[in-house]
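Pinned message: reference record for Integrator complex subunit 4
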Amino acid sequence: MSLAIKRSISELSTIPESPTIVPQIPTHRLYKRLRRNACKSSGTLTSILAYVNLLEDASSNEALQILLKITDSMHFDESEFPDAIRKLVEHFQREPESAVRVKILSLFADLATETGIDGQQLIDEVIKLLKAEQSAKVISQGLIVLEKIGKSFTPSVAYINQMVFFAKVKLFSPSHNVQRHAILLLGVFVLISDAEKESLELIGKYTDSPDARVRAQAFRSMLTLGDRGVQLPPSLYPRACASLTDDYECVRKEALNMVFELGVRHPEEMIKVQDSEQEVRLIDDAFGKVCSAICDLSMNIRTLAAELLGGMTMVSDEFLHQTLDKKLMSNMRKKRSLHERSAAHFASGEWSSGKKWADDAPKEVISADSVSLMASGACGALVQGLEDEFLEVRTASVNSMCKLALKNSLFAVTSLDFLVDMFNDEIEEVRLRAIYSLTAISRHIILREDQLETMLSSLEDYSVEVREGLHLMLGACKVSTKACLTLVVQKVLDVLLKYPEDRLSTFGCMQRVGQKHPEICMSITPQLLMDHPFFDSAERDVEDPAYVCVLIMLFNAAQHLPAMLSLFPETTIKHYAYLRDTMPNFVPRLAVGGDTKELNLIGSTGSRQFLETLLSNIQRAYSAPQARQALLKAAQDDLDRLAEIDPTFSGTANFTSVFFGAQLQMEQLQLATTGQSIKAPIKECLLQLIKKCLMLQNLFSNLTNDDQLLVKQMCLRASALNLVLIVKDRSQSALGPCQLLLHIASDASSFLQENTLLVADTFTSAILTKLASVGDPKPGRVYREILPIVQTAAPVVIPQINTNIKMCKARIIEPTESSYSAENVIKVTAGLIAAVPFVAELENLQQSQRQDLRLKVKYPDQNVHIIVPRKRDLKKVMTEQGESESQWRLRTKVLLSHGVWTEASTVEITICLSVKPNNELELCKPVKVHFAPKPVKRGL
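Predicted structure (tokens):
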């Protein structure tokens, strides 16, 4: 055994000169037996030719049913495809019913997208069939099929030109459906060089089509060409502006997108104002056109216009500020000189009679509306959007106002009052959007007292998300005077008394307020601490949340203004030491009492050096099994401690610790395969090993290709050990473990083939080679083939240091064990339901794992309930910079119910990930609450 291990380690240390050929494990083997059983039970055929041959003597209705069965199957032998396509084409040519011909073309598209059929052959066949086709419905379907086939692979230039030429021919069809799909095909496949020469102009002519759907598709295809890299010329702008008044919503929508796109692409292009010789920038005129669309009759157009305004950040300041004023600015009108006005008056032949005072004063004879550089609908456009009756328009207007304010500090100050007014909106989503927008532009603004009164009145909102959003906003903004800060502190403390569950959010708010206003905090320190200049005041309760809020704000202000420390009384200094130990994330380190030096572990030096030393010691002990196992056990404790004290290395340390734990379990089970006895039960060890493998697969992100290969090799070893031990035990079926091994082996084989630079270890190479050579992978045969490899396997290679690894974990904020202790028991009548508020924060949860989140409730009688939280209860945590990328907050209610208990007992609640059926990975330690179902009281 030791010789085999030494030999394997020496083999791993050498770098192969040529890449290893990875044997491929066919994935269809796993499901071969299942598919065969399904076919037997349903009585359906498995050959596509068998289906197609049935079409020869079938009627149109029967042919349609057969084609539907082919679509439902989609698991065929690819060698039969050429003959099947030929027979389908023959049936298409003799089929009189257009619906069947449409279905045949649709089947071609399904075959191209779901199988490995030759797409170029299908393109030839479809175009050949459509050339002789007369039905507009069939031709439209054929154009759709050509688009799907072309997207399923990368066609050559010759085939692209063939499809484009066919689409251009069909543009002259009298059917609007055929025209629409031909324009769609041109927008997707026409070559960029060809589009800039003639195709763009050809498509543009169809914006004047009598059919609205064709006009809309013409604009949409031009936008598609623009996304593909075609230069959209400014000459398209008048055509798009004319379509903004189209009778049909679909046309106005695409024209609005075109106006926006041209304005953003050519912002400095000068165009003439209608009915005037004046010129304006294209982006300014486009901005006015988009503003006018906010008055559209359609809610969808108004929403789109409000969204597009946020992307037009290059607009001039006078046009931008006009959106907040419903009166047309005087400087937006054309002014004529005195000479021009006198010349016009002389040409009119009118002279002053002298009977009326100033009757010869120059007058403007040009209407202001006719010479306005901005359409009247653009005046107050954003105000109009904020006052719209639909929440979609109001939300889009708030978002656009925020985007524009981020690029223009003067506009941010002007828009402040309008955003504050939105705090009183009736819809919670709009209020939240306004709060987060004001938080984002907080660096440009300073709040006045009248604005603060409106904001602080919203602090008593029933929605906890609104209150937390306001706490975040108040911490991000700056106030102007001492009276403003006093008003903020007093209102926040009053609301905390009403909503004590907002304690942590309030602490964070006061922490940021103190950091941003150190000078003002210093001026009100005696007032907040109630410190009399002559008399000693009573010591306040350090457990009072209101007093703690004040201390947190003052301590954070003192961090930036150390002179404040002289204003703190002696009791406050004592309370600082207590709060610094109990909540270090809210209270900073100050130069108060004793040593002020702080030990900081820097990830690039201390922690990394420790990890490198630890891994090198384990590497040197690889040849001695007992020393290696002792080092791995000690390393797990050290790594767990490192994860606690150094957050930057937390993911790396946890990943390495779990990896070492799986390796220890694997070495014990490897001894069991040789017949030796181990201390722990084999089933328990197998369960722990499988759990650790699932943790490596699902709880860690930002893994490199080398890390992923190590995880896959670890899972392959675990599945092989699982199969060997289950076959040896003979107490349960080995079919499931065998299929699991084949599935993991197939996954590892595919991964190695995709990443040719990676080299598998000797165990993985041997297992993949054996499994590839097994013709019929039955559990007994697979067991006999892999047994000697498993028994003589070398230890797993230790992972390299990857500081980017992040671990998914959770922290339960509510309930806490102190809030539902033995003195505060949840009492409910037996059989009824008690709702316990549950709040947790999750870090590094992937977007794909949201649907796997579960709440696990464990009762004292060992009954376990798994609860699926609602999707709307899980939201990203908001920060001053916007939504957090890796932090989520789950806010829901856990329902508890049970039969009668004689006394109160603890119920464990935790949050976990459901990675497999009956396999949940806990993300944190469970919290215990006391629960007491009481018997029903009987009446007299």
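Pinned by admin. Summary line: The first strand starts at residue 270 and ends at 272.
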